[in-house]
Design goal:
- By secondary structure, this protein is of the alpha/beta class.
- The chain folds into 2 domains: about 1-30 and about 255-340, no CATH class; about 30-230, TIM Barrel (Alpha-Beta Barrel), CATH 3.20.20.210.
- Helix content is about 45%, strand content about 10%.
- Helix 10 (about 235-240) links the parallel strand 6 (about 220-225) and strand 7.
- Helix 7 crosses helix 8.
- It is globular and about 60 Å long.
Length: about 350
């Protein structure tokens, strides 16, 4: 029997120490996003509503859900609120809801619901999903990227306008909720490469990422970063800002090289291709179990790793749940065999 609880074991890995057994991303019960009463006020577009229904974020961007990504939310394709970056001040306004949040009330409702004995309480209050993602939601990927090249100063002004609000919300969240950590997301890469160059990142997006993370670093709290896709070259900057965990850390990144270059500095959460062969109709149970073992054998021995197996499939809920069951069963069989 293990001596450490799942949360204690997870925290050991998060602190750069060798865990007793391989932690899972789900072991700690990490609460990403904002506690519910505040989340409803900010209207974050996480998803979960019926496909075909349109909902709007606090800036008026329309969002829809997609069944193929688990009813996750994404901006309604082809519908943009900003077509000229130089006119952003006429379109993107400070949402009134930011000044209407009763933080004392929200904290009084939410904090009693948080079980800190089993949960690592990390919150990520924000006015949107991430700076690059918000730019794309306002203008579309192509027009947003063109704006970065043609009018970089205007994009910077918009990003700093958004960042001012995020920093304000984060400081209030840290004061009222006293969390153990903080969470920030911004997907700047796709499956094969980043959407932007390192040079453009350092010029436009890195400064607002760093400024957003600064109150958390000053408070000495854990900082978790979500970023999908292949972004190896951005990892040194993510660590330097104070982030000590990253999910879903997809395996098209050279995760072993990252573990070896930054030992004990960044917890790899995930390391699993949930949209790869595990969700192909022809993949067998034996192949799914073998892939699970392969990822554990590759990433667990070096530590700074929390397993995160999943299936993002169009095969239907029943089949997806069955395959997820194979993955987690194999993980449970193997997780105690990597550390002394």
């Amino acid at each position: 029997m293990p001596k450490l609880t799942p949360l204690e074991n997870y925290k050991r890995a998060l602190n750069g120490e060798t865990p007793e057994y391989v932690p899972s991303m789900m072991d700690s019960g990490v609460m990403f996003g904002v506690p519910m009463s505040t989340d409803e006020s900010l209207g974050l577009m996480i998803g979960g509503w019926p496909q075909g229904e349109v909902r709007y974020d606090i800036f008026g961007v329309p969002y829809v859900t997609e069944a193929n990504i688990g009813l996750g939310a994404l901006p309604q394709p082809g519908v943009f609120i900003l077509d000229d970056i130089t006119k952003w001040r006429d379109v993107i306004k400070r949402p009134a809801v930011i000044d209407e949040i009763d933080w004392d009330y929200c904290a009084s409702v939410d904090i009693p619901k948080i079980d800190r004995e089993t949960m690592l309480f990390q919150g990520g209050p924000a006015i949107g999903n991430g700076y690059f993602e918000m730019l794309a939601s306002f203008m579309g990927f192509d027009n947003g990227l063109i704006a970065c090249m043609e009018e970089p100063e205007e994009v910077k002004d918009l990003m700093n306008f958004l960042c001012d609000m995020n920093v304000e919300i984060t400081k209030k969240f840290l004061y009222h909720y006293k969390p153990e950590g903080w969470f920030m997301a911004d997907d700047i890469a796709h499956d094969r490469a980043p959407f932007i160059s390192v040079e453009l990142f350092l010029d436009i997006f890195e400064p607002v990422w760093r400024r957003s993370a600064a109150p958390v670093a000053e408070a000495g709290l854990h900082a978790s970063h979500h970023n999908c896709g292949k972004l190896d070259e951005f990892i040194p900057y993510i660590i330097d800002m104070g982030f000590d965990s990253w999910n879903p850390a997809e395996p098209q990144n050279d995760l072993v090289a990252i573990q070896e270059k930054f030992p004990g500095q960044l917890l790899i959460q995930g390391g699993f291709a949930g949209n790869g062969p595990v969700c192909w109709p022809e993949t067998t149970e034996e192949e799914i179990r073998a892939y699970t073992k392969q990822q554990l054998d590759t990433l667990a021995p070096r530590g700074s790793y929390a397993f995160g197996g999943f299936v993002m499939s169009t095969l239907g809920q029943e089949e997806s749940m069955k395959r997820s069951g194979w993955i987690m069963d194999e993980f449970e069989k193997l997780r105690y065999s990597y550390y002394n």
